[in-house]
Structures are given as C-alpha cells and as structure tokens.
C-alpha cells in the first residue's frame, strides 16, 4: 500500500502497552488491569504500533507460541483515522510476523468478514457471560466428593503448565506463570488424588472482574471454581468468555445467573487445533488466546 506518508511501524514500548490497554477498554472489551505485563512476557516482540508522524494511531499483537502457532489480537485503529489504510498496513505487518504458522484470533462480529478474506475460518464463538453468579438449586455448590479446591500457587508449576496444554495449541509456560501469579489475581485449582481436574483465575478489570481460564472436568467443578473466584472480587460481578462449542458450559453460566453480553468468533487460518473443548468453560484471553 502506498500513500501513507509519515506512517511507520515499530515495536511497542511499556508506555505503548498501557495505551493499548486503554484503547481496548474504549472498545468495550474490558481487558484486565494488569494483562499487559503477562502479555509482554509471552512474546516481547509481538506487539506492534503504527505511528503517524511519531504519534500512535494503530496497534496489533502478533504473538508467536512455540514453533508453529501464533495469535492475533489488539487490532485497533484510532477511531478518527479508520478507513485510511493505517490499520490494514499494520495487519499485514502482524501477519508477516506469523508467516508459516497456524494463526488464531478472536474476531469481533463487525470484522469477521474481513478476516475471512484474509484466509481465516470460524471454529466456534466465544460468548461473554456477565453478572453476579448465584448458586442454583439444580447445580451443586460443591464438586464431587474427593475433589478439593486449592490455591494454584501451591502446586508444582510444571503440573499446571501440562494441564493448560490440553486447552491451548502450544506451550506458553512463561505467559501462564505471569498470568496466574501476578499480584491482585487469584488462581484456584481443583484436585482429585493429586491430579488437576480444574483451573480458574480471576483478575481485576475496569468493569466486571474477568475470569479466564476456566477449565474443569465437569460442570460441578466449574461451578465451584467460578463461585469461589467471584468471592475474591470487590462486588462479585464477573465476566467469562465461554466457547459455544461446549453447550454444557453455556448452560452452566445461565444456570448461575450470568447473561450474554458480548460475542467474538474464534478463527484459524488452517486446521482447527485439537483442544479439549469439553473441559473449557472459559478461554484465557481474547487478545492472546
């Protein structure tokens, strides 16, 4: 593309990462207050900013995981400069950074047709459910006998990372360690006979506190984790991005009184990875997968 005089693309600074968070919040995405610190650990070179005569006007994340997977997120152009080619130039730079990899993203409804033009195909929808969860009569407040809910920080990290790999296409140990271990966050695990049967984390945000990931062996474990995580928030209000490819997860959220508020499509450039969707009650992050 030509004619973008004064426009250049370079890596994000720490100040840029705070700006990206503010832009995402302005879009109504309600990112976690401290998400950017874990994001930077995942792939320090994976966050790009487009500048017009030195001023940030667009951003994108193109994060590399392992040798063969990548994830696109934070694709935002400043509202007053949309439609002028700056965002598309940045999009091309992000995709070039992930060239040769299977690439995933969570696309907002209004952009999904553009992503399809770039070779992405829908795998499922992530529907954000929000509210103050309330135990329902037909849902057990406690997991099955023999399952304990513990602080995830007390478990060997290798055990947590191995469990996470069931739900994500590539290793992301550094990111996961930062994601669940930062101050102000709570991460809980469900254990049976020393084996992990569930994992959930909650983090403060400008709106409802965000829960993600939320993995569980069954709805009772998921409900127990979610209710305990909500207890750790200032007002009990939480938001969970639930894959509709797992109908029992959506049913659980409705049973706990959470209501749909926002929707994206999980899309990939190639074959959908083999993930344990039956155990995924909430994705980790719409920005990094």
Give a structural overview:
This protein has 289 residues and is α+β, with helices and mostly antiparallel strands. Helix content is 27%, strand content 34%. The mean pLDDT is 93. Strands 1, 2, 3, 4, 5, 6, 7, 8, 9, 10, 11, 12 and 13 form a 13-stranded mixed beta sheet that branches. Strand 9 (195-203) and strand 10 form a beta hairpin.
Write out key terms for the chains shown.
single chain, 289 residues, alpha+beta, 13-stranded mixed beta sheet, 34% strand, globular
Task: Give a brief outline of the structure.
The protein is α+β, with helices and mostly antiparallel strands. The protein has helices spanning 14-26, 35-42, 86-97, 112-117, 157-164, 173-181, 219-231, 247-255, and strands at residues 7-11, 47-52, 55-65, 69-77, 102-108, 121-131, 147-151, 186-192, 195-203, 209-216, 238-243, 259-268, 280-282.
Approximate shape: globular
Residue fraction in strands: 25-35%
Helix-and-strand structural type: alpha+beta
The chain-level mean pLDDT equals: 93
* Tally of contiguous helical segments: 8
Contiguous uncertain segments of 5+ residues: none
- Helix proportion of residues, in percent? 25-40%
Largest sheet: 13 strands, mixed
Q: Write the H/E string, N to C.
A: EHHEEEHEHEEHHEEEHEHEE
Q: How far from one another are the termini?
A: 29 Å
The count of strands amounts to 13
* Rounded radius of gyration (Å): 19 Å
